[in-house]
Amino acid sequence: MSQYSKDIEAAQALRKAQNGTWDAINPEYVARMRAQNRFKTGLDIARYTAKIMRQDMAEYDADSSRYTQSLGCWHGFVGQQKMIAVKRHHGTTSKRYLYLSGWMVAALRSKFGPLPDQSMHEKTSVPELIEELYTFLKQADARELNHLFRELDAARDKGDEAAAKAIQDKIDNFQTHVVPIIADIDAGFGNEEATYLLAKKMIEAGACCIQIENQVSDAKQCGHQDGKVTVPHEDFLAKINAVRYAFLELGVDDGVIVARTDSLGAGLTQKIPVSNEPGDLASKYNSFLEVTPVESADDVAEGDMVLKQDGKLVKPVRLPNGLYQFRKDTGFDRVVLDCVTSLQNGADLLWIETEKPHVGQIAEMVDAIRKEVPNAKLVYNNSPSFNWTLNFRQQVFDAWKAEGKDVSQYDREKLMSAEYDSTELAAEADRWTQNFQKDAAAKAGIFHHLITLPTYHTAALSTDDLAKGYFGDLGMLAYVEGVQRQEIRKGLACVKHQDMAGSNIGDDHKEYFSGEAALKAGGSLNTMNQF
């Protein structure tokens, strides 16, 4: 028996037990409302989606072609439309997630106005966006089921049992729009207690997966900006523990933690950890510091710090701002140590912030990590901060040159130019770009591909196109031709914006509550009927 049928029976029993006082309650309407509100709390969502994500991770371990993807969304409506589109075009939401970008929260959701990605926005904005995203995803469920319920009633009215059964099967096997969200907690917005408190709010809002980075929280920078400062491993592991305790306290025992390292592009540290014995984590972290030898007291200035490394006294190089500097060309080794340490101390997935999308570069680091942790896998940022066109054209140029192919017709530094768009090199670069996710999943251990802030850019681009025409010679045709006509011909449900906002659901609820006396909005005079 389906859950829908069970809910009808349960409502019937409840109504019967009330000695006639509940006779106005229709048990099937109760079942419909329950189906439209499957997830009662954010914790219900977190537990449900954590299981999905764990299953996806296991399937990827068995077959790297089964990688997962997401797009960053900065508003509940954007996330809703994304998942509606995924279901419509691909038939399933399987392996498709949402990403909550701290960058977009800072730039678009802060009460201070647009901010850079430096953890200056209100920390409460993050769980609020998670809750908003799931509110809109649940509404997408309610709307789609509402349409099925109406179709079911119409089939029954016609006496078409075959059609009614087919529709009932769709209801019984309905796939929710609710999918995992990978949520960015930045560097934790403070100490480990602050991290724990914010993680709890995020999980209570529905997050099954929290991504945390190893930067200093009060000096946090976007991963694609300069000036990044990392923390010692001990500090980062304390925050990983804080997130795990938050999951366990709330009963999300299989919650997922993504440990992000910015060490590839971070050359500074704020703190030198205390080493208790040679070769411990603090000792390894300090071994990457830029130091100068100390031969005598004359080499030490007032207030300088002195370390003993490999039996010799050395002085870490300290900048005027008090930060300490790592040696150049140690980023690779620091990334590997960061990742191995995180996985060995409670993290589930890795995030390595790189400066370019290069499968070989990522694979080299993952191969080194997998020597210590064989099932290590990544969440990877397919970042809009990369110039994808130029990067892949240059990668093809370099590969062809190494193969001895004639590349004299190309200027490597100007390959972004439109004059190269129709060339063989550009076509090959586009193929590399198209296959990047598949190739990186197979060769570089990437389990999840995401684009952090794509909908920031799509909103800007589509608005620019509309504004150019509407406020110019095209006038209203700019909207009609460029937006509404496209919505109609491409079958976008949002063209019926009243229905998308819930007017039909509301009408049906009014009928549940008031019967024939219900005042509905969806009558013959509703202009939505034009579509």
From TrEMBL:
Keywords: Lyase, Magnesium, Metal-binding. Signal peptide: none annotated. It comes from the Bacteria. One of its GO terms (biological process) is carboxylic acid metabolic process. Transmembrane segments: none annotated. Its cofactor is Mg(2+). Can also use Mn(2+) ion. The active site is at C222 (proton acceptor). CDD domains: ICL_PEPM. PANTHER family: BIFUNCTIONAL GLYOXYLATE CYCLE PROTEIN, ISOCITRATE LYASE/MALATE SYNTHASE. This is Isocitrate lyase.
